[in-house]
Amino acid sequence: MNNDKVQCVILAAGQGTRMKSERPKVLHPIAGKPMVQYAIEAAYSIGSRRPIVVIGHGAEQVQHALGDHVDTVRQIPQQGTGHALLQARSKLDPAAELVLVLYGDTPFLSAATIQRLLDTHLAAGAVLSLVTFTPDDPALYGRIIRDAGGRLLDIVEYKEATPEQRALREVNSGIFCYQTQWLLAHLEQLQPRAGHGEYYLTDLVNLAAQEQAKTATCSCDEAEVLGINDRAQLAAAERWMREKINLRLMLSGVTLIDPATTYVEAQVTIEPDTVIYPGTHIQGATIIGRECTLGPNTIIEDSRIGNRVEIVASLVEGATIEDDVDIGPFSHLRPGTHLDEGVHIGNFAEVKDSRLGPGTKQGHFSYLGNATIGANVNIGAGTITCNYDGQRKHPTTIGANTFIGSDTLLVAPVNIGHDAGTGAGAVVTHDVADHELVYGVPARPKVKKNREA
Ligand code: UD1
Ligand code: CA
Predict the structure, then answer these.
(1) Ligand 2: centre distance to CA 55 (Å)
(2) How many whole angstroms from 80 Cα to the centroid of ligand 1?
(3) Which atom of ligand 1 is nearest to the CA of 229?
(4) Which fold has domain 231-445?
(5) What separation in angstroms does the CA of 218 have from each of 66, 133, 173, 212, 426?
(6) Helix axes 35-45, 59-66, angle to 10 degrees
(7) Which atom from ligand 1 is nearest to the alpha carbon of 172?
(8) pLDDT tens digits, residue range 384-442?
(9) What's the CATH fold of domain 3-225?
(10) Where do the CATH 2.160.10.10 domains begin and end in the chain?
């Protein structure tokens, strides 16, 4: 879509009192993403210019979370939606033909609806256009006032509406499009409301009607423009977003055994023919390949998973897992774990900041930290890298084809060669050479190892 003449302004300064939170409302996450991020992505997805976000309540925190993906302006104190757009006035580029206003607390708005608004606006040659909707319960939304011929006259806020106006069901979504020149010429005519001093952006509708200027509306589903105001709506939004993500995954070829208990965050990507069992959470910047079997009861966060990987009832965080690996049940892969092709991780294994070479097996009750392990190594039950001396972490290396016996303690820093071995219960405090076999406490070489014999 070519919308490079569209300047998007996202209103996100409001306090969000009903959230009862220290955290600014627009930073509360939905499916793992701060809710304001959805409006920013919608702006980018229609190809508009770099958006301007109006921030105010918790401005520092919001600014920090947004980084430099957007321009920001501050609105302090927050005196209404009209006042919010006034703050962005000096940043509006007069060369941008249209100004599009989105809300930071309306995460379900689709790019298609925004595009429809822009198309309607241009086709009508309007100075102002907006998205309206007609919910069963129009609640506290601003009512759309039209004349007998259907011409847009005004928007009246619920608290200022007469009983007849309250009975109207067509309401304002808050999503507006303006001809930039018209907006710049009229924004400063907004007057604060007596009593509370708020400037209503909706008053521009009445200004346009008085001037007989062209206006237009298009409508959308209530579900697209629902605002998040309290924790109950936040939970509902979380559920809808999850359903939306799950549907997208299923339609793209991923099997979800029970979508109701499958929690996939917005950033995650999963390739076709992967099967997800119930009770599985996939979070953060996770990428998953084809034909994997994940869960039941598995949590995967910020990880990269290859093809044909099986993970049962385990926690995987910040890990890279290559093809044909199987994990679990009940294992914990912590940040910095890298498992090469065909690695087997069994029960009650923990790995942190370690790389395990192709085909290596870590079957039972063991811990590997700060370790570099070659190919086809066997890590016996109960093996521990003693990587921490109380002050610092130390590395362990193990060469290819080595056999670490059950209950070996590897006191780091320590290097074990390839084709070497340790006896059950060994406490390894010194390096072990290639092909060497060590036993005992502390471990010493006994005989040259000859596993083939
Ligand atoms: C507004 C509309 C109402 C519409 C409803 C749709 C006005 C006067 N009313 O009401 O007609 O039906 O949205 O949801 O415009 N914001 C700021 N600064 C402020 C106030 C608000 O940035 O000073 C931002 C908020 O962060 C939020 C958005 O504007 O993203 C809407 O604000 P909110 O207070 O929720 O408006 P409503 O009273 O719901
Ligand atoms: Ca609202």
Answers:
(1) 15
(2) 7
(3) 35
(4) UDP N-Acetylglucosamine Acyltransferase; domain 1 (2.160.10)
(5) 30, 8, 10, 19, 75
(6) 50
(7) 12
(8) 999 999 999 999 999 999 999 999 999 999 999 999 999 999 999 999 999 999 999 99
(9) Spore Coat Polysaccharide Biosynthesis Protein SpsA; Chain A (3.90.550)
(10) 231-445
